[in-house]
Amino acid sequence: MRGRTTEVGRRTGWPAMGMQTVLLCAALALASVAAGCSGISPTAPPVTSSPTATSTPGSIDSGGQAGEALEADLSVEVVAQGLTVPWEIRFFPDGALLVTERTGRVLRIDPETGAVSELGRLPVASEGEGGLLGAALDPGFPTQPYLYLAYTYRDAADGGLRNRVSRLTLTGDAIGGEKVLVDGIPGAGNHDGSRVAFGPDGYLWVTTGDAGREDLAQNVGSLAGKVLRMDREGHPAPGNPFDDSLVYSYGHRNPQGLAWREGDPDPYVTEHGPSKNDEVNHIEAGGNFGWPVVGGMAGEPGFVDAVYAWSPTIAPAGAVFYEADAIRGWRGSLLFVTLKESDLRRLTPTDASFSAVSEEHVLFDSRFGRLRSIAVGPDGAVYLGTSNRDGRGDESEGDDKILRITAR
Ligand SMILES: [Ca+2]
After folding, report:
1. Are 126 and 132 a contacting pair, CB within 8 Å?
2. What residues pair up with 94 in beta bridges, in sequence order?
3. Cα of 198 to ligand 1 centre, how many Å?
4. In this structure, what CATH number is given to the domain that contains residue 134?
5. Is 23 exposed, middle or buried (0-12, 13-18, 19+ CB in 10 A)?
6. Residue 15 near residue 4, CB atoms below 8 Å
7. What is the CA radius of gyration of the chain?
8. What are the distances in angstroms from CA 269 to CA 127, 214, 339, 341?
9. CA 331/CA 313 separation, integer angstroms
10. Is the distance from CB of 224 to CB of 162 less than 8 angstroms?
11. How far is the CA of 292 from the centre of ligand 1 (A)?
12. Which in 24, 268, 273, 373 has the greatest CB count within 10 A?
């Protein structure tokens, strides 16, 4: 068992650390969350374009150690707007953004001018939570001019929803030459997973949801409810725990964040629980992460506990480890965004192994609406994508947006 959770307050589950300093920080943070909720209106004026600072007095983030950047120390700019559910943000080597829109467009966005150019449009089934979802750029780009995309489609034979992972070639300003790497991953109007990323091992990792059929998550013969690991042709990566299988870990419900800590070959995943037990998990080869049998930090033999869990749920989405110095004191933190709670969260670990969480910081609570995607730019700025046009949000002027957060 890696730890346990206690349910404190509406928003956060603080692990019981037995450390005075941590408990003090928790109390301060909870107090300021309450203050922040009354002080920050969800209908605050939309952020105007650069370089307008939008920090708010009375930062929610008051649990930080001395020397760590707080919300008041940060500036927010709009990089691009008028988008429709930007699901993933990546960076081309020249610094331009690669963005997927859930409705099917693949975009290149100039981070300085905000100019948006369409590289292509995929015929996705943009239904419910499905559509064009995760994306990764080949680590050898542009010598290897490939994009790896995950999307939902309707099966021609039975009309059912499925997900697939495809490789497309970028030639000039257009993608084409689709090669399907993995086809027929169970899909549905929700629980489609589909975060896609290259790990430090050079292999392609893909999260999949249970597609609303929870039994599939425990079936290692199904691609649903899994973390998959493959080569660039869609074949099982060497060293995968099950013979001739893409499956790396199982027992997942709807994992939508996938991030690596520096020096660690195994990723961390954020995933959506049902009405409780949203989780951050440290993935292990062959690990059973519990769904639908156990959740959170149950401590049950045979299951891997979450590193951290939230009850009630917050709907965690994109995640990234912050391995830069541009924002003071953030190096080594896990950053992720939430849909339901509409904030940016930063988790700091108890120790170098990140096997437990010592502090949770809540930033920009309800300032921008639902947040789905996150990336760290080459300059150490943090980029966020809103998700207010996904059918569950309140659309503000200019939505959806890509935002850039930098130190003042
Ligand atoms: Ca679990």
Report:
1. yes
2. none
3. 23
4. 2.120.10.30
5. middle
6. yes
7. 20
8. 24, 18, 16, 18
9. 26
10. no
11. 8
12. 373
Residues 99, 237: Cα–Cα separation, whole Å = 26
Which residues on adjacent β-strands are paired with residue 384?
Answer: 374, 403
> What pLDDT is attached to residue 28?
33
Model pLDDT for residues 310-339, shown as the tens digit of each residue? 999 999 999 999 999 999 999 999 999 999
Where in the sequence is the domain holding 149, given as residue range(s)? 6-407
The pTM of this model reads: 0.86
Neighbours of 332 (CB within 10 A): 14
Local structure of residue 274 (DSSP, 8 states): S
In 172-254, at which residue ranges do the beta strands (DSSP E only) sit?
174-186, 196-198, 204-207, 226-230, 247-250
Task: Give the Å distance between the CA of 265 and the centre of ligand 1.
Answer: 20
Nearest to 57 by CA among 36, 30, 34: 36
CA-based nearest residue to 188, from 218, 155, 212: 212
Cβ(210)–Cβ(190) under 8 Å? no
- Dist. CA 270 → ligand 1 center (Å): 10
- Closest by Cα among 285, 212, 210, 281 to 247: 285
Which residue has tokens 């994508």?
385
Residue 189 tokens read as 């109007």
- What's the total number of domains in the chain? 1
Left (φ > 0), alpha (ψ -120 to 50) or beta: where does 290 sit?
Answer: left
> In angstroms, what is the span from residue 309 Cα to ligand 1's centroid?
9
The verdict on residue 328 lying in a domain is yes
Residue 61 resides in a domain: yes
Residue 369 C-alpha to ligand 1 middle, in angstroms? 27
Side-by-side strand order, sheet with 86-91: 86-91, 97-101, 105-109, 116-121
**pLDDT digit string (tens) for 74-89?**
999 999 999 999 999 9
Task: Pick the closest to residue 31 from 54, 69, 4, 58 (CA basis).
Answer: 58
Could you tell me if residue 195 is inside a domain? yes
> Which residues on neighbouring strands pair with residue 284, listed in sequence order?
none
Pairing verdict, β 278-282 and 255-259: unpaired
In a domain, 1, yes or no: no
Residue 44, pLDDT above cutoff 60: no
